[in-house]
Design a protein that fits this description.
This protein is mainly beta and about 220 residues long. Helix content is about 10%, strand content about 55%.
Length: about 220
């Protein structure tokens, strides 16, 4: 036990020493977000969402959103701000209703038709350039925009054609405030336009509250 405590103490002093040697942040951030999500077109009445609506439509279009990601500084002092590269993983849940489960009505021996809670959701992986304005209110207030990003989308359940993977165009804008050099809080709005694979209409928007760990 004493050896473990000694190792932890040495590691802590090393980290503190490194922090002093590199007191000025690099300009990057790791962030975590939570908020609301809105699907532009409900997916009720499809085969895998609610068995073609035989027991009601699973057509909700609003729910919650969770995401996490990080920003890597690419170009500092690019005009009044910094150019960042953003990588984000985002999960949005739009609907969840108790409906007739599709696979239970296939007539398989010994498998009765049942109703289950089926969730309509989307997972997106976003890569995007991000421009953050610096120097406002002593550098504490930092608005930012994403003019054009790429989103790789995974839809659940799949479409009638069993398609579940799509790509999209991602835009966003937000503002954050640095409570400390190492900690920021902010709000943002994001909109993703899906390319529209057959049977999928998965354009959606999110509004989020987030906190960021700056480095």
């Amino acid at each position: 036990m004493k050896k473990i405590v000694s190792v932890l103490a040495v590691a802590l002093f090393a980290i503190m020493g490194t922090g002093k040697a590199h007191a000025e942040p690099l300009g990057g951030q790791v962030f975590y977000s939570i908020g609301g999500a809105w699907l532009e077109h409900g997916r009720g009445g499809q085969v895998f969402t609610d068995t073609n609506g035989l027991s009601g439509k699973n057509d909700g279009t609003s729910g919650y959103d969770l995401s996490a990601g990080f920003d890597i500084p690419l170009v500092k002092q690019a005009g009044p701000g910094t150019v960042l590269g953003e990588f984000m993983v985002d999960y949005s849940r739009f609907s969840g209703k108790k409906v007739l489960q599709t696979t239970s009505v296939l007539g398989l021996p010994g498998v009765p038709a049942t109703t289950e809670n089926i969730t309509v959701s989307e997972l997106s992986v976003v890569f995007a350039p991000k421009y953050r304005f610096e120097g406002i209110m002593g550098g504490r207030l930092r608005p930012w925009i994403i003019p054009a990003g790429v989103a790789f989308l995974i839809n659940s359940p799949p479409s009638n054609n069993t398609t579940y993977v799509d790509i999209g165009y991602h835009v966003a804008a937000g503002v954050e405030y640095m409570l400390l050099d190492q900690l920021s809080v902010g709000v943002d709005y994001r909109y993703t336009i899906a390319s529209g694979e057959p049977g999928l209409k998965s354009n959606y928007s999110v509004a989020q509250l987030y906190f960021g760990i700056n480095f």
